[in-house]
Amino acid sequence: MPVAACKLLTYKGQYSTCQIKVPDIDEKLPAVKVSGQYYSRFRRFEDAEAAMKALAKLARNGDVLALTKQSKDSYVMWALELEAQVFKGPRKDGRRWPTCGPATCLILGDAKQYNQGYIQVPDLADPMVAVQYDDQFYSVYRPGLAAGEALYLAAQLTGRGNDSAIASTSKGYAVCMLEPEATAHTPE
């Protein structure tokens, strides 16, 4: 079952706004440019929970998405446009395109998408609770969060370059960090 790969964009220095043309639509579309790729505006959500549910649903299609926070509680979702051509260039007020965007955050919207267990990382003596997706381990950094809290915390982590995941659990959302050197821990 596919998951949504999402760029969590929390401040305007991570992206630039523009307008694009795509082959199958005649009119120009509002867009953001992140790390050299264009994302067209898909939909606005009035709260974080609605945005998280939409991310989980769109994961089934394998869409690559970006999410920007517009105000205290509203979010805008953007969809990657591989064949986009920029219609309007960068603003002329001296701003430059950002050189790179944040790391990617996976949205694991269904417990069937991941396995939960324990991992061992080289620099820690005790095993850690983790989720496993696609042969990679993500340590559970903070469990039991509301949707808005999970998006905020994951955006902070990805903004620092840490690949992360948000896993939907029975007790809310868990923010997880990629542990590239982790191995599965089996109790003795």
How much is the average pLDDT?
86
Our estimate of the beta-strand percent is over 45%
What class would the helix/strand composition place it in?
A: mainly beta
Across the major sheet, the strand order is 7-2-3-4-6-5-1-8-12-13-11-10-9-14
CATH topology of the largest domain: Phosphorylase Kinase, domain 1
Name the overall outline: elongated
Largest sheet: 14 strands, mixed
**Element-level helix/strand string:** EEEEHEEEEEEEHEEE
Q: How would you describe the overall organization of this protein?
A:
With 188 residues, the chain is mainly beta. It folds into two domains: 4-88, 2-Layer Sandwich (Phosphorylase Kinase, domain 1), CATH 3.30.200; 104-184. It has two helices and 14 strands; from the N terminus they run ββββαβββββββαβββ. The chain has helices spanning 48-59, 147-159, and strands at residues 4-9, 16-21, 29-34, 37-45, 64-69, 75-80, 85-88, 104-108, 115-120, 128-133, 136-145, 164-169, 172-178, 183-184. It has a 14-stranded mixed beta sheet with strand order 7-2-3-4-6-5-1-8-12-13-11-10-9-14. The longest helix has 13 residues, at 147-159. The chain is elongated and about 65 Å long. The model has no long low-confidence stretch (mean pLDDT 86).
Keywords:
single chain; 188 residues; 14-stranded mixed beta sheet; elongated; Phosphorylase Kinase, domain 1; mainly beta; 2 helices
Question: Topology, please?
Answer:
Blueprint: E1 4-9, E2 16-21, E3 29-34, E4 37-45, H1 48-59, E5 64-69, E6 75-80, E7 85-88, E8 104-108, E9 115-120, E10 128-133, E11 136-145, H2 147-159, E12 164-169, E13 172-178, E14 183-184
Parallel strand pairs: 1-5, 8-12
Antiparallel strand pairs: 1-8, 2-3, 2-7, 3-4, 4-6, 5-6, 9-10, 9-14, 10-11, 11-13, 12-13
